[in-house]
Design brief:
Elements (H helix, E strand, L loop, with lengths): L2 H14 L2 E4 L9 E5 L6 H8 L2 H4 L2 E6 H4 L2 H10 L3 E3 L12 H8 L3 E4 L17 H8 L4 E8 L1 H4 L13 E4 L11 H16 L5
Parallel strand pairs: 1-7, 2-5, 2-6, 3-4, 3-5
Antiparallel strand pairs: 6-7
Helix pairs in contact: 1-2
GO molecular function, one term: acyltransferase activity
Protein name: Lysophospholipid acyltransferase family protein
Keywords: Acyltransferase, Transferase
Length: 204
């Protein structure tokens, strides 16, 4: 890892804590797709910082190219976080936006994704888009680990520029997989429910 990566994770821990709570699994070196609620631009850094160093080396956040693809943001995403950038604008209508994720999973690497597709303002996630389902279909051996980011919707809410220092936790749940003959709709709702379950009694 680059020295700048350590500085980034250190800053995240200083500002928002990013304290890991492994509630349903242990931090193991198995291929995983971590999927979480999405309320701020610091979500990616918080989850990555919560992972042990040995897992950060093989885990890649998925980030939107239209936001993270230029200037300083591009350096943070590609050099410090080693993120996989996806084209949400579908500039090439014939291209599969999941192709970069699929290639990374084929290499045996792990991913961090936000199935809502865009940031929300609620403490609980909105409806999940289909990307997680398609990845689960193509990579049935990858563990799907739900993650809940507590308090980040207050630390850096949508529209804010600088984070408000506060204690945030990153809760990792029990791995799940696509069940035999499970429909896309049923799977996505079940995955969303697993993230909400990690939220406990938090209010939307």
């Amino acid at each position: 890892m680059r020295p700048s990566s350590f500085l980034l994770t250190g800053a995240a821990k200083l500002l928002v804590g990013a304290f890991p709570r492994w509630m349903g699994c242990a931090p193991e070196s198995t291929q995983r797709i971590y999927f979480a609620n999405h309320t701020s631009h610091i979500d990616t850094v918080a989850i990555w910082a919560a992972l042990p160093i040995r897992l950060r080396n093989t885990t890649h956040p998925v980030a939107a190219k239209d936001y993270w693809g230029g200037g300083v943001r591009s350096y943070i995403a590609t050099k410090m976080l080693r993120a996989v950038l996806i084209d949400r604008s579908r500039s090439d209508p014939n291209a599969n936006p999941l192709a970069p994720l699929i290639e990374m999973l084929k290499l045996g690497e792990s991913l961090i994704i936000f199935p809502e597709g865009t940031r929300g303002s609620s403490a609980v996630p909105g409806q999940f888009k289909s990307g997680l389902y398609h990845l689960a279909t193509q990579f049935p051996n990858a563990q799907l680990v739900p993650v809940y980011l507590e308090n980040l919707h207050r630390s850096l809410p949508k529209g804010a520029v600088l984070p408000i220092p506060m204690t945030c936790t990153v809760r990792f749940g029990a791995p799940m997989q696509l069940a035999a003959e499970e429909t896309k709709e049923a799977f996505l709702e079940r995955a969303r429910a697993e993230v909400i379950k990690l939220a406990g009694n938090v209010k939307a």
